[in-house]
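Q: Give me the 3D complex with S-adenosyl-L-homocysteine.
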Amino acid sequence: MQYLPIFAALTGQPCLVVGGGSVAERKVAQLLAAGARVTVNAPGLSPGLAADAAAGRLAVALRPFDPALLPLQLLVIAATSDRAVNHAVAAAARSALCLCNVVDDPEVSTFISPSIVDRSPLLVAVSSGGQAPVLARLVRQQLETWLPTGLGALAAWAGSWRDRVKAKLPDVTARRRLWEQVLQGALEARPGLAQDVIGGRLAAADATLAAALEKESLGGSRATGPGEAWLVGAGPGAPELLTLRGLYLLQHADVVLYDRLVAPALLAYARRDAELINVGKTGGGPSTSQAAINALLIEKVQAGQRVCRLKGGDPYVFGRGSEEALALADAGLPFQVVPGITAASGCGAYAGIPLTHRDAAHAVTFVSAHLGADQEPDWQRLAALGQTLVVYMAGRRVAEVCAALLQHGRPLATPAAVVMAGTTDQQVCVAGTLDDLAGKLSALGLVSPAILYVGDVVELRARLHWFSPTAPGAAYNAERQGAPP
Ligand code: SAH
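A: Here is the predicted complex, encoded as structure tokens.
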């Protein structure tokens, strides 16, 4: 081991940064975040450093490197762009016996800064000893996705209980056993205390720990009990539009139930031994009934499994996610819901159609073109001006919807657009007016999944479209619909 990793308590400690540019500014920011008393030594300061100095956040020695400043410092960072000056700082620090880091020069440094994953109070530091900083950064990025953001809250919560647990359980082995029981669920996403804290259910977590302390053990009740269901929004199509929370849960699931609209690439993130079940519904094709999906969810969770129910877009927007959650709630089973980017906002962003805009729309309505049997949306109300209308499941009904809106008074020239396979490399956007959109679409012969935008915001697309799909159109439909390309 070439370096001893340590976490330095710098609150109130004198630290010197030599250099006044942007690199120095970054280092100063880190030192200030750690509570250090910082002096900057440089002949000139960047605007950011000057502002910090003016606000009294740091002391300044406005002159070339001054070795006389050194004996009073705990740490020194040399961050000038002049190698000779940096080396002079390192030499002076060595004689003054204070630790010195020369930015990007580990050879002359007596300490180096790691890449960090900050889940304060939990900190993970990664270093390649200066040999391969890019590798250290990549490892850090992996850890970022692997460690849930709520881990900091968990560490802080555990800290808040530390003294009480110690008083109640004087025996160190018993204490360790309890903490292991409590915390092990955090990294494995096992239902239980740790997940309660990460999920913000602090009152439940406090109550469980208090009861466990009385019994001096968690008793393993949750470990042998039911699993948990996670209703996770997978986003509109592009795999990278999944949230970090969704990815984390997907990576830990024992079972993944997924829909037709979920990006196939996402399934690669599931554990290799996870059971992957396609419960997709294709327009008119074979599908698993909603009742069967609910029953499957309940069966798997009751069997103690962690089930990731991966749903296209957001689970609570036209996805029947609420029905699945109600089925779980009625069965008394634990579940969590992770929102996703819904098709309206995802496809709008990728097609250059904002949902609202100060001059074009002050409200937005999401509506499904398919209600229950024989029901029609209230087109009269939906034809109101000054708002954006987003019609889900529009595929085969674009002509009917446009006609209904025209019939209820929207002008022929009202801008309208359909986005198909939005956010994927096969996205197609067809824009026109309520009058001509259906004709343009039928000429192309594309169907699903399709979402319809109506309103003045559609016009902004001419200036706001930025996304160039690599393979727009046919293949997507061929694959998902069984339609000829
Ligand atoms: N829960 C989903 C919606 C499910 S309903 C969400 O929040 O997005 C399915 C409808 O969503 C489709 O018929 C279509 O109207 C729309 N949709 C979903 N993904 C889409 C995509 N990538 N491109 C266009 N429309 C999409």
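A quick observation: Residues 236-237, 261, 311-314, 317-319, 342-343, 347, 392-395, 419-423, 449-451 surround S-adenosyl-L-homocysteine (CB under 6 Å).
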